[in-house]
Amino acid sequence: MKKVYAFIANGSEEVECLAVVDILKRGGVDVTLVSVEGKGVITSHGARIVADCVIEDVNLRDADLLFLPGGMPGTNNLGYCKKLMDGVCLAVKEGRRVGAICAAPYLLGKLGLLNGKTATCYPGFESELVGANVTKQGVVTDGLITTARGLGFAIDLGLELLTLLVGADVAQKVKSAIQYN
Fold first, then answer.
1. Are residues 7 and 67 in contact, defined by beta-carbon separation less than 8 angstroms?
2. Which end of the chain is more exposed for a tag (fewer CB within 10 A), N or C?
3. What CATH number has the domain bearing residue 79?
4. Does residue 180 lie in a domain region?
5. What is the pLDDT along the chain (181 residues), one digit of tens a residue?
């Protein structure tokens, strides 16, 4: 079974995170919601979410994919976590996948992971996608990195990640089951 760590911090955009988590879980992926700031966080819109665990409790090398939601100041708070940023770099180096949505792709740019890659992000963060060929596509995968523009593309991102992890047939079944055209 494929394993995903979805990260959350105070100020993360809750629906971007949980929509992707939901799609992946519906497709049979083992998803763990990992906080970088203590188990309970307050999201960008004031919702309280209790994560499954904190980052200190996981080995980031155990995941097939590391997922970073957007939202502010949540994206910045994820970026302040050295263990997470080191883990993202190591994942790509070792051939594992990384997904980021909204503002979070800027972290990948800061880490130098977008050099020569096509990537997308929330409007206004394009200059932060250092080295990337920036596109306005809703969701784009280039190699091991998948990026998405924002909340309106969260389901598309979840389906893309599901396709990459377990196959188009499973993603199509989930898409049909949730009545998504």
1. yes
2. C
3. 3.40.50.880
4. no
5. 999 999 999 999 999 999 999 999 999 999 999 999 999 999 999 999 999 999 999 999 999 999 999 999 999 999 999 999 999 999 999 999 999 999 999 999 999 999 999 999 999 999 999 999 999 999 999 999 999 999 999 999 999 999 999 999 999 999 999 999 8
Which residues, including other chains, have CB under 8 Å from residue 59's CB and lie 6 or more apart?
A: none
Q: State the Cα–Cα distance between residues 69 and 20, nearest whole angstrom.
A: 9
Listed in sequence order, the residues at least 6 apart from 72 whose beta carbon sits closer than 8 Å to its beta carbon are 11, 44, 103
Classify residue 130: in a domain, yes or no: yes
Torsion sign across C-alpha atoms 101, 107, 113, 117 = positive
Report whether 31 contacts 21 (CB < 8 A).
yes
Cβ neighbours for 36, distance < 8 A, ≥ 6 positions apart: 7, 8, 9, 54, 55, 77, 78, 80, 81, 83, 84
89: domain range? 3-170
**Is 176 domain-assigned?**
no
